[in-house]
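Give me the fold.
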Amino acid sequence: MRLRFLREQKQISQLKLAMDLNMSQNSISRYENGQRQADYQTLIAFADYFGVSIDYLLERTDNPKINK
């Protein structure tokens, strides 16, 4: 998952992301390190937060745009 890349690109900490999405910093760390798999609602929250498609977030495409 491109979570760490997106977070670092926006220059925000794990703690800020966690607070903005009402999660724990530990959860963000586990998602970034592959120790935890995100459920659908969490994937949607991450994609919406960064303004990218879920496919981009999950590295299924290199196009970050959301196709509607």
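Helices lie at 3-9, 14-20, 25-32, 40-50, 54-57.
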